Amino acid sequence: MFGGVCGGLGRYWNVDPVVLRVVFGVSLLLGGFGLFAYLAMWWIVPDDSAPDTAKVNPSWLMVGLGAIAAVIAGLIGLGLLFSDGGSGILLGGLIAGLVVWIVLSQRTTGQTAAQVPPEPGYAYGGTTGYPPAAAPPPPPAPPRDRSYLGLIGLCAAIAATGFAMLVSGDPVTVLAAGLLALGATLVVGAFRGRARWLLVFAVPLLMLLAAVGQVQRLDINAGDVTWTPTSAENSYSLTAGALDVDFSQWQGQPGLSDSVSIDAGLAEVRIAAPRNWDLVLVTDFGAGELQIDDKTDVRPSPNGTNRTLVPASSGRADGTLRMNVSLRAGAVIVQTGAPAAGTAPAVIETPEPATTKDTKPASPKKEKAA
């Protein structure tokens, strides 16, 4: 439908283009293998407007782009085939199933062509002198039987999506359930019934599923987020947005071995520094600034890393925490004087050692007789 690749391959191999579109659609989910393979064939293979003798696209620019896309598709395919996950098995199954389909289609075409009787010649063995016979008008096309396959497939996709929403909250699982029902219906429609109009729903759903899957794979998150780090959960990443760091859930007091790491893209990191802690900020900026109590405190170094000490505002530090903040662009804002965090260290009172004093023995008292 985009570039005519599946239609051209289907006509060349005598395969229903719907089957090829389903194969390419599924392969889009395998790390983008199907996308680059489709682009390679789109840009390299000549279209109907090219001369019959052309083996590749007359435009060398398109051929170069197609070669790059083919190399990328090959690298992705090799990585999937030799990976430990199930993507390699799925890709191998798709390729094997497509090859078997093409071989069976070619065999069926050859048998059908052999059974066609030869065209009869002229009567009485004549070869010339006869006017050409007028071709009879083609018979009217028989009315097409009504097919409910598409409606059944659409209902099945809606039911599969609803069931996936009940058993799983993962958006990839929900979208994949509906797409699986649509894809199965299209494959069945290649043999019996008609359901090509389901592509109107399947193609946008496939593109949405591919986008959501890539977002989850890259761990992209954005928005206004509040993070409460602990000694066990001490790292956080944010793609874009604002991050408020609150230490109210920290247990105990941080020591020399405790640290917190923040990796952000385009963001504003706001840190509420507890009044009973010393914070050692190690910031790595691509383009940004450090603000402490509304005062800009940027001290660039040759490698772009700053080390700043934010002392406890109470004047007495119960602990010291190291914070590593990596920021592509944005600002790190520190506000001191936040409520004390962590449990106060226990104060153990040690008894003073007993001192030996020279004391005179008490003289016995005499009791008076009544």
Describe the model.
This protein is an alpha/beta fold and 370 residues long. It folds into 2 domains: 5-112 and 149-217, no CATH class; 222-338, no CATH class. It is built from 8 helices and 7 strands. Strand 4 and strand 5 form a beta hairpin. Residues 345-350 have low confidence and may be disordered.
**How helical, in percent, are the residues?**
25-40%
Number of strands: 7
What is the mean predicted local confidence, pLDDT? 76
- Unreliable runs: 345-350
Number of domains: 2
Computed Rg? 38 Å
Shape: elongated
The helix/strand order is HHHHHHHHEEEEEEE
What tags apply to this protein structure?
single chain; 370 residues; alpha/beta; seven-stranded mixed sheet; 8 helices; 7 strands
Helices and strands in order, then pairings?
Blueprint: H1 5-13, H2 17-27, H3 33-44, H4 60-81, H5 87-114, H6 149-167, H7 171-189, H8 199-217, E1 222-227, E2 235-245, E3 259-274, E4 277-292, E5 295-296, E6 305-310, E7 319-338
Parallel strand pairs: 1-2, 2-3, 3-7, 4-7
Antiparallel strand pairs: 4-5, 4-6
